[in-house]
Here is the input.
Amino acid sequence: MDELQVGQYWEANAETWTRHVRAGYDVYRDALNTPAFLAFLPPVQGLSGLDIGCGEGENTRQLARLGARMQAIDIAPTFIRHASASETAAPLGITYRHASATALPFPDATFDFATAFMSMMDIAGPEVALVQAYRVLKPGGFFQFSILHPCFVPPYRRNIRDDSGEVLAVEVGRYFQATDGAIESWHFSAAPAAERAKVEPFQVPRFHRTLSQWVAMIVQAGFTIEALGEPMASEETALAEPVVADTRVAPIFLHFRLRKPAKA
Ligand SMILES: C[S@@+](CC[C@H](N)C(=O)[O-])C[C@H]1O[C@@H](n2cnc3c(N)ncnc32)[C@H](O)[C@@H]1O
Here is the structure.
């Protein structure tokens, strides 16, 4: 699947996606993944940053609230429209642009850091996006991104539950089958039934790569891997938000922090 088609799928998702994340239905993101990502992030106060695949912009705004000077891009115009409207309503100094991660509209060595929250496995050509992120970073800059964990959320995954519904284990399959825009169709699990009945499920093209393929793409782009994170819900979080309890059995997300060497 090419980038144009990927953009069309996301454009079709964008209106409902924005409404649902803003209603708090993306519990994995809000209760676990974004807090873990920010805890894993080096200090960004006063740094210039680029958020790649920003969606409606909530995570970009979190970075701006930490003191970073943010720009952000996304391939779906409706996401950029909603993100820009938020900036107008409550300015944080963020510039949002409609652009692709595979052709970033910025000169070389523009940013101190870049981020991508859960977008790198959704991009047609993740290897090109890595090369582009490397290009726009200043020497010594870092790129931190989160993806679906390739080992525990490959194209086939099923939670195995006991009689009470508690997740005991995870069944995975098709790990070695790289996908090229295979469509995954779903709602946020916290979306109420009445809301689900009103809207089409999201159609998300996915570009699954194995862990060793991710490492090869990262190294090929010129980055060094500085740290990895595999967020797990605390006992308290799992009690408060049972939907994320399965991350105590095996991780759903993988975080990479990469560094562009200070000297090429
Ligand atoms: C799962 S959403 C994540 C959105 C946001 N980062 C968040 O965490 O809420 C993936 C995002 O990647 C964007 N995307 C997919 N392909 C892209 C590309 N080539 N360039 C820029 N954004 C892209 C989609 O439009 C979508 O907003």
User: Anything to note?
Assistant: Residues 3-22 form the longest helix (20 residues). The chain has a mean pLDDT of 97.
